[in-house]
Amino acid sequence: MQMRPTVAIVLAAALTAAAGPARAQTPAAPDSGLGGFLGSFADSTDRYFGLSAAPVDTAGLDTVLFDSALRPRRRLELGVAPAFDFSRVDGSVPGLSATFGAAAPDPERNGPGRLKATIARATGPGVTLGGGRYTNRVRIARQPLDVDLWGGRRTSDLDRDDQAGLLPMARALLSGSDWTQYLREDGFAGALALRRGWWRVRAGYDDLLQSPQRTTTTWNLLGHALGRPGNLAAAPGRMRELDYAAAAHWPRLPLHTELAYQTSSRRLGSDFEYRRLRAAAALDLSLGRAASLVPQFLYGRLTGDPVPQAAFYLGGGSTLRSRHLDELGGSGVALAKVDLVGAQDLLALLRVPHPAALPLQGGLFAATSAVWGRDPSTGAVRRGVDWPDRRDWTSEAGAALIYSSAIFPQRSSLRVSCAWPVGPFAGASRWRISFTRAFDLLGPEPGDDE
Question: Residue 284 domain-assigned?
Answer without folding.
Answer: yes
